[in-house]
Amino acid sequence: MKRWAVIVVVVAVAGGTVWADDVKKPEAKTVTEVKDLATAGTKAFEAGKASEAIDLFQKAVLVMQRFLEKGLADFLPETPDGWTKGKIDKQSMSHASGPYTGRWTQVQCVYTRTKDGLKVEATLSNSPSLVQMHEALWRTYSNPMMLKMMNQDPSSQIALINRDPWKGFSQVVKDKSAEAKLFIPGCFFNIEARKGTLDVVNLFIKQTDLKGLAATAKETTPKPTP
């Protein structure tokens, strides 16, 4: 299985934002394109053409986002026997507000079971907010009393997931859906089986190279500066 060295690098910046990057070296033509855009942007800014410079730098960011999207997409689940894989939807966003900046990249794909049309949606994202939100939920559910209270309704059951270093939880809503949400710093992974079962969700987790992604994250995470 070919894998891109997508990361998961955790870096603290203003506002506690977490960033993720792809560490596989891009092709020379991609590097050249980014360099040319950045150089042109710098020259435009030096000439007092701020609007033109912003446009050029945004184009450079777009090139790099497309590169990261391809890397993330390669970590989506392999298609199980008896299923067909739909088109991969790729989205990226970057923003700035005052002293804060942020960005995320997400890839998503729907798989369909041939025999009955059952659909499973897989989403892989480096969104810091998604990771932080689900990490907070995981901590809440880690309290046995809280988990017991959440599971009082038999039609909706939550269970913790701990596949070191991945953490997360599954949720089954009777006759509606089964879902698993897993995360490591900087990376969020979601599998949802619409009108499916937890067995189906677990099948797609097994089809995913979680160990490879986690190993890449461990190898590429920079050491804290003293």
Describe this structure in words.
It is built from six helices and eight strands, in the order ααββββααββββαα. It has 226 residues and is α+β, with helices and mostly antiparallel strands. It has one domain. Strands 1, 2, 3, 4, 5, 6, 7 and 8 form an eight-stranded antiparallel sheet that branches. Helix 1 packs antiparallel against helix 2. The protein is elongated and about 65 Å long. The two termini are 38 Å apart.
Report the major sheet.
8 strands, antiparallel
Mean pLDDT: 80
Radius of gyration: 20 Å
Number of domains: 1
The N- and C-terminal alpha carbons lie at a distance of: 38 Å
Structural class: alpha+beta
What percentage of amino acids are in beta strands?
A: 25-35%
- Low-pLDDT stretches are 1-23, 219-226
H/E element string?
HHEEEEHHEEEEHH
Number of beta strands: 8
Helix coverage percent: 25-40%
Q: What labels would you give this structure?
A:
alpha+beta; eight-stranded antiparallel sheet; disordered N terminus
Sequence-ordered SSE layout with sheet pairings:
Layout: H1 28-46, H2 50-73, E1 83-85, E2 89-97, E3 100-113, E4 119-125, H3 128-141, H4 144-150, E5 156-163, E6 166-173, E7 177-184, E8 187-194, H5 198-206, H6 210-220
Antiparallel strand pairs: 1-3, 2-3, 3-4, 4-8, 5-6, 6-7, 7-8
Put the structure in a nutshell:
The protein is an alpha+beta fold and 226 residues long.
